[in-house]
Amino acid sequence: MKKILKRVITLALVATMVVTAFAGCGKSNNTSNTENTGSNTAATATSAPTESGSTTTEATATPTIEPVDTSNAAGIDGFTAFDETVEITVPVYDRSKEGYPAVDDNYWTQWVQSNFGDKYNIKVTYVAIPRGDVMTKYNLLIAGGDTPTIMMEYDYPKVAQWANDGAMTTIDLEAFAQVAPTYYNAMVEHNQLGYTDINGETYFVLSERPYYNTTYAYATFVRQDWLDAVGMALPTNYTEYCAVIDAIIAAGLTDQNPIGKALPTAAYVGNFAYRTYPVNETEWAQYSSLGTACLSWEPTYKMLKRENAEYNKGYTSAEYDLDADGNTMKADFINGKLFSYGGYMGSNVDWLTAFYENNPDATLTIASNYMGVEAGVIDQPTLRADNPFGMIVGFSSYATEDQLKAAWMYMEWMSQEDTLFTLENGVLDVTYTLDANGLPVVNGDYRGTEMLNHNNNIDMTCIVHASKNIGTIEQTIAAIAPQGLPQDFTQALIDNYYELKEIADNGWAYSDPVFAVAIESESEYNATLLSLWKEYSVQLVKCDPSEFDALYEQLSQQYLDAGYQDIIDERLAAYEAGNTTKLPETISKQ
Q1: FRET label pair with 22: which of 75, 100, 179, 246, CA 20 to 30 Å apart?
Q2: 333-365 burial string, b = 16+ CB within 10 Å, else e?
Q3: Rounded-to-integer distance, Cα 289 and Cα 157, Å
């Protein structure tokens, strides 16, 4: 435990200093929930967020874990109340959304306590984790001995480091399966057991990612009325895109730069579309990561070079780097000043509702996923795909035996269909109604006591699955399509899904590697490198185009010297030792 406290206290102090250094720019923003637009969106409408996506990645090269016999497991039917009250702490993302209830104390957290906790003498306490600053909050909790009983994140490098540092306890999967057979059998069904180990020991269980082979919950919208005003069609490649932006500027449709951009505050670099195809597997293992920005990699060079050109043509704001939380960009779209904006879909999408309120005569359409294609820069719309799991879930090394069992009971109870249905839809004829097919339609405008939190309470149900799942893909998309808007985007979202599916079926969708060992240097240097990425990327975007190449070479070397070389060397060694996933055979390799 001394090892973990020393390392985590150091990380917490570093993270706090990084946050303080940028306090004047506002709160940082995590890739996993960034609502995104601008030149990255122009490159590909689906290459940024990590809470939804697709994959064809094969399971990790760790030894195969045989399924456990759960035929005699009683599961929820065998639950009995604890003799003495057992408290478990459960993390829940705080997205700081205006008009939504507190994530750690609301009607639905109280409903969980009444319907689960009170029944089994378990006190369920929710812990708010700022979505834009996950690691700082977790590190402070760990350092203070307040680690949540359940620890979970979408990004494998984060949980791998927690496990490696001793913040998580190892798991007896057989014991877990006896308490939570529904949850365990879902992992077997979705071929996830190969991802449960780190450093040769079992630390994780994993939630489902419905329809993980193709993104469907994220969409980028563009101003159809502006296209109509300049007499141009929806752009289907980058040449057409630039022509549209030039025409919008010439027509004076906005009094500011028409493409939104914000300071990159997360380590994720949205450069998937700029990567060469076929995929170079060695480079992929070295550089493709959510944990550290890959500044010195050729795809990042291509991406920044395009952003530099867009900036110097007046497409993006000269002060974009002051927008550290993306709120200025969102407000600009809402106020009718930007051509495009994107985010995750749900029955209520606040920025879409606000957009129509402020621009009642405007019309929107969903962007083409081919909008960024440009020969020699983006040759095909390669997509960043997620792994075939949602949350990676572990348990605190401080947890008692009773707390572990109570946490597993909570997960099994949450896995029941009736529990998920209620948490994701609410109260009949209050928060939802049933359509002609008997499927729930959530009232996104409801603001009463029973209102659902962000995206149908997904930050509570994500411990079971990464997104709401109802029937067919068409029915699922209909269930997460925004409600109460002047335009109905249900069919457009379905069409977008099938366009993305076509891209994925062509082999142009793959995920980051998942390592079966912790990359120590990544934990050591990533806070420093994230700070440098923010600084260097802004310099490269804003410099004179004639200075770009020389500056890129200089800053890339400084970045390598600051620790990135150690990271890519360690990742390569882990890859060569067989401690990582492999690209699927369906994706050709150089």
Answers
A1: 100
A2: bbebbbbbbbbbbbbbbbebbbbbeebeeeebe
A3: 8
* pLDDT surpassing 70 at residue 62: no
- Tell me, what DSSP letter sits at residue 10? H
**Helix, strand, coil shares of the chain as percentages rounded to 5?**
45, 10, 45
Say how far apart CA 97 and CA 452 lie, in whole Å.
12
Extract the tokens encoding 219: 């969409």
Name the average pLDDT for the chain: 86
C-alpha closest to that of 352 among 253, 362, 424: 362
List Cα–Cα distances, 432 to 57, 68, 102, 422, 471, in angstroms. 37, 39, 21, 10, 17
Angle between helices 134-143 and 2-21 (to 10 degrees): 140
User: Could you tell me the strand order of the sheet in which 392-395 lies?
Assistant: 150-153, 392-395, 205-206
Is there a contact between 4 and 397 (Cβ–Cβ < 8 Å)? yes
Q: Are strands 509-510 and 383-384 parallel, antiparallel or unpaired?
A: parallel
Q: Is 573 helix (H, G, I), strand (E, B) or coil?
A: helix
Q: How far apart are CA 119 and CA 408, in angstroms?
A: 15
Helix (H), strand (E), coil (C) string for 503-535: HHHCCCEECCCCECCCCHHHHHHHHHHHHHHHH
Residue whose C-alpha is closest to residue 107's, from 505, 457, 538, 516:
457
pLDDT tens by residue, 116-160 = 999 999 999 999 999 988 888 999 999 999 999 999 998 888 888
Listed by start position, the domains of the chain span 46-56+214-386+509-576
Q: Compute the distance between CA of residue 90 and CA of residue 464 in angstroms, rounded to an integer.
A: 13
* CA–CA separation, 128 and 5 (whole Å): 22
Q: Is the pLDDT of residue 443 over 50?
A: yes
Q: What are phi and psi of 130, to 5 degrees?
A: -55, 125
C-alpha closest to that of 241 among 309, 192, 293, 181:
309
CA–CA separation, 325 vs 327, rounded Å?
5
**pTM of the complete model beyond 0.70:** yes
Amino acid at 8: V
Strand-pairing partners, residue 91, are 127
Structure tokens at 92: 């829940």
Q: Angle 72-400-64 (CA atoms, 0-180°, nearest 5)?
A: 50
CA distance 47 to 31: 11
Nearest to 275 by CA among 507, 543, 54: 507
* Residues in contact with 141: Cβ distance below 8 Å, sequence separation at least 6, in sequence order: 127, 147, 148
Closest of 341, 274, 271 to residue 533, by C-alpha = 271
CA angle 268/273/279 to nearest 5° reads 95
**Rounded distance, CA 364 to CA 387, Å?**
31
- Do the strands 122-130 and 86-94 form a parallel or antiparallel pair, or are they unpaired? parallel
CATH class of 46-56+214-386+509-576: alpha beta
Are the CB atoms for 451 and 219 separated by under 8 Å? no
All residues at 6 or more sequence positions from 336 whose CB lies less than 8 Å from its CB, including other chains: 254, 355, 358, 359, 362
Position 81, amino acid: A
Report how far residue 585's alpha carbon sits from residue 505's, in angstroms, rounded to the nearest whole number. 13
In one-letter notation, the amino acid at residue 274 is Y
Rounded distance between C-alpha atoms, residue 454 and residue 445, angstroms? 12
